[in-house]
Amino acid sequence: MSSLHRHLSGNTGALGAGLTFALSVALFAYGGLWLDGYFGTKPWCMVALVLCGIVGGTLHVIRVLAPEMWPFGELASPFDKPVSRPKRSPDNSEPSPGEAVGPPGADPTADDESASEDGAGRGQP
Is the pTM here over 0.90, yes or no? Predict the structure, then answer.
């Protein structure tokens, strides 16, 4: 019974990947038909979207059934540690913890001009 269970559980991934492939091609074809009717471009949108569905479905089948053949680098496991990202460039940076935040180009060390020495303008009476 355990060999039958192993045989059936091994086929579940293939069955799921095959159904995903067929469903993605069918949905993309239906979307292409709808776009062709909307824009009057019969059959070009359907052809383009069917090709997209075939490519996407094929990539899904490869990823599920043969991850060692994945053409776009190494697949990350959900159990791997998170990948540290490189720091952003100065022109597209986020403030680091503890850094003053203000409008772009503002000097974070300058005092607010509307606030006076006695605390007026800071919510104090």
Answer: no
| Residue 91 tokens, joined | 């022109």
**Three-state DSSP class for residue 85:** coil
Handedness of CA 62, 64, 69, 72 (dihedral sign): positive
Question: Range of 60's domain?
Answer: 19-69
Among 7-11, 43-47, 94-98, the minimum mean pLDDT is found in 94-98
Residue 76 has pLDDT above 50, yes or no: yes
Number of domains in the chain: 1
Judge whether 49 lies within some domain.
yes
Q: Distance between CA atoms of 97 and 4, rounded to whole angstroms?
A: 56
